[in-house]
Design brief:
The complex is a heterodimer.
Chain A: H1 2-9, H2 19-49, H3 54-58, H4 73-78, H5 90-126, E1 130-131, E2 134-135, H6 136-145, H7 151-164, H8 171-196, H9 200-207, H10 212-240, H11 244-249, H12 257-266, H13 272-292, H14 294-302
Antiparallel strand pairs in A: 1-2
Helix pairs in contact in A: 2-13, 5-8, 5-10, 6-8, 8-10, 9-10, 10-14, 12-13
Chain B: H1 2-5, H2 11-48, H3 59-80, H4 82-112, E1 114-115, E2 125-126, H5 130-137, H6 139-170, H7 176-188, H8 191-202, H9 209-216, H10 228-257, H11 260-268, H12 273-300, H13 305-310, H14 322-331, H15 336-368
Antiparallel strand pairs in B: 1-2
Helix pairs in contact in B: 2-3, 3-4, 4-15, 5-15, 6-10, 6-12, 7-10, 8-10, 10-12, 11-12, 12-15, 14-15
Classes of the chains: A mainly alpha, B mainly alpha.
Chain lengths: ~300, ~375
């Protein structure tokens, strides 16, 4: 007992505590640094490899400027190095097209999903529905149960459906599929968000003469906006990384970045540095999103799952 | 909508305006329904070659459905007033999901019972239960299904690591923000990029740093994808690298939501760190843990991207997941009918499995409480 009283008297820095605490916290930091290394090294490796020449790859040089001199070789093959950035480059045009496709598909799908998903989540959070035998709980379950549908089940029917609708290899088709894919997640996050907003706010607005939709637009939406941003960002991440549908439903026009990366890195002949450059360019946007918008991602992930 | 926004209208006027709008709503809905059916019939006639209208695709039906859906939402508001306004919140999502899921599953069931190979000239042909019969004889499919058992079990290992990391991040540490972002980053990366970054370069036999490290540690022949178990473990490691952050974030949020008084009380009572974890933290975290594990299992059942891009199922199908197996059936063999049968069969297994897990989890949670 005395020991505990003594340590709790000194809540200051860890160094002032008993040696046992010292080794304990040392162990904690060692584990933290180890896992940070595990998490970051592949990213570091990919980025540095895009600046390596063949010798540096085969000899396993790791630290730029110390081990090896960075070279623009990988980026030159993509047409993105300083000396080729203004020159004509078919690879770069291809890459830019895929990049834009990815942006349009993921942003479009996320926007659509957040739009209809928020509306549905609000309705499910506030009103009680009854449609045939289905009550609110069943409708929510209907939406959430879409989560377990594996893409393989939908892929072929969609291929045939889109062929008949002449939507194959278009961005619209991808946006529709991706919306379906992220809609359950958006509804889950947003329902949790709306549940935390007190009902009294809207009741006051209704008394003041707002319609239900007016109260939703003017009162609830501004409060729920951070949650919507979180849901949007999470959806963008999921859609940006999606490979399965994109590989089956697109061929030339609407091909997205992951499909391009897969086809480039799948071939054995291509050089490490250019593959590393493509991989770096593909992951960079999301790495930046992860660093700067981490708060929203955590918020989106934890909504609904943790009470 | 106007009648609720402007309260100046007297109740009688409101009643009549609601009635006329209800009539208009019904008119709108029936017009849209008629349009939908007319387009449907025309399309069928055209497709069967009975009447040649010259429709190139089924797109008119697609537009007609959108018009009908919009009309249905508007009509709800016009006919049922306030109740309709409430219904209009949830209707768009329902109509979208029904259109996007019901058609593909029903149509998929039909494809599943046909013999349809895109590269064969014969086209689609109904063949009854033949696909199902060849499914039961297909050892590669059952092998992939067995692999799924291993992959699902690996979720438990991921859970243990993720729990440890969450505990670390929840301890009193400096630079918590840095570590949290660093631990989260793998989740952001696309599995396709990860396949190259780790599977094809880090673990590459000749020059990959992981192989070099393994050689330094005394493993002469670090071929990560040579033997079945080694390859499977490598795939699991990559999958864990991507998905541990997801579990970690949820578990961390659960830890932070725990009441601090209980832990302090345990400390005062002289419980050691391990004791307070075993007796207090872990039991309190059970609901969150259940949610996390079930969510991860559901996602794990779709595992495909990494396998497709790193090993393509090899060596000898040792790393195949059901999804990657069906993917190859589609893309390399163009075997649509059989592939769809596999997919539908897998869906049935998944639904039963997930339902059992959910049932078991809820029963178990009830007993615990």
């Amino acid at each position: 007992m005395a020991i505990i009283a003594e340590t709790s008297e000194k809540p200051g820095s860890i160094w002032s505590r008993r040696p046992q605490f010292l080794t304990g916290s040392l162990l904690i930091y060692a584990a933290l640094v180890f896992w940070a290394f595990v998490s970051l090294f592949p990213i570091y490796w990919t980025i540095t490899t895009s600046f390596k020449t063949a010798v540096n790859v085969t000899q396993g040089h790791l630290i730029p400027f110390v081990d090896f001199t960075p070279d623009w070789k990988g980026w030159r093959s993509l047409g993105l190095s300083p000396d080729t950035i203004f020159a004509q480059s078919t690879v770069r045009d291809e890459f830019t097209l895929r990049f834009l496709n990815s942006i349009v598909a993921s942003a479009g799908a996320s926007f659509l999903a957040v739009l209809i998903g928020s509306l549905a989540a609000y309705g499910l959070s506030r009103f009680s529905y009854k449609f045939l035998w289905m009550k609110n709980k069943d409708i929510s379950f209907f939406f959430l149960s879409q989560l377990i549908l594996p893409p393989v089940v939908l892929a072929m029917p969609f291929l045939v459906l889109y062929k008949h609708l002449m939507l194959l290899d278009t961005l619209v088709s991808l946006i529709l599929v991706y919306t379906l894919m992220v809609l359950p997640i958006v509804i889950w996050i947003m329902r949790d968000q709306f549940d935390t907003i007190p009902v009294e706010l809207e009741q006051a607005a209704l008394v003041d003469g707002c319609s239900i939709w007016g109260a939703f637009m003017r009162i609830v939406l501004p409060i729920a906006l951070p949650g919507m941003v979180a849901a949007f960002i999470l959806s963008v991440i999921l859609c940006w990384n999606e490979y399965f549908f994109a590989a089956l439903l697109t061929s030339s026009n609407a091909k997205t970045l992951p499909v391009m990366v897969a086809s480039q890195t799948g071939s054995q002949g291509i050089n490490w540095w250019s593959m590393a450059a493509i991989a770096t360019a593909a992951i960079m946007p999301l790495v930046l999103v992860g660093i700067f918008l981490e708060r929203y991602i955590v918020k989106g992930l934890t909504a609904g799952a943790v009470k | 909508m106007s009648q609720t926004i402007t309260p100046a209208i007297s109740p009688v006027e409101r009643k009549t305006s609601q009635l006329t709008s209800a009539r208009r709503g019904r008119l709108l809905l029936s017009a849209a329904t008629v349009l939908l059916f007319v387009v449907l019939i025309l399309q069928i006639l055209d497709a069967e070659g009975i009447a040649t209208i010259g429709l190139v695709s089924w797109r008119p039906l697609f537009y007609a459905y959108i018009v009908w859906a919009a009309a249905l939402c508007a009509a709800q508001v016009m006919i049922r007033g306030e109740a309709g306004q409430r219904a209009a919140f949830v209707l768009p999502a329902v109509l979208f999901t029904v259109a996007m899921v019901v058609f593909p599953t029903v149509f998929g069931l039909y494809i599943a019972f046909t013999d349809w190979n895109l590269s064969a000239a014969a086209g689609r042909r109904f063949n009854g239960l033949d696909n199902l019969r060849s499914l039961f004889a297909d050892i590669y499919f059952w092998n992939a299904l067995l692999n799924m058992v291993y992959y699902v079990l690996s979720v438990l290992v991921q859970y243990a690591i993720a729990f440890g990391l969450a505990l670390l991040l929840n301890a009193e540490i400096k630079a918590r923000k840095f570590f949290r972002v660093a631990f989260l980053l793998p989740l952001m990366l696309s599995p396709v990029a990860v396949s190259w970054m780790i599977g094809k370069s880090l673990m590459e036999y000749r020059f990959g740093p992981a192989a070099t490290l393994a050689r330094h540690l005394g493993w002469d022949n670090p071929a990560f994808f040579s033997t079945p178990w080694l390859a499977r473990t490598s795939i699991m490691a990559m999958d864990a690298w991507v998905s541990i952050p997801f579990m970690m974030i949820l578990l961390l949020a659960g830890l932070q939501a725990l009441p601090t008084e209980i832990k302090e009380a345990a400390k005062v009572d002289g419980a050691s760190g391990w004791q307070s974890f075993k007796e207090i933290t872990f039991p309190l975290m059970l609901p969150v843990s259940m949610t996390v594990i079930i969510l991860r299992i559901i996602f794990q059942l779709k595992l495909a991207d990494i396998v497709i891009n790193v090993t393509a199922g090899g060596p000898g199908g040792a790393t195949d997941t059901v999804s990657s197996f069906i993917f190859r059936e589609y893309r390399d063999r163009s075997n649509v009918g059989y592939g769809t049968m596999l997919a539908e069969f897998y869906l049935v297994i998944i639904i039963i499995f997930v339902a059992l897990i959910l049932k078991g989890a809820s029963r178990w949670m009830q007993r615990e409480n």
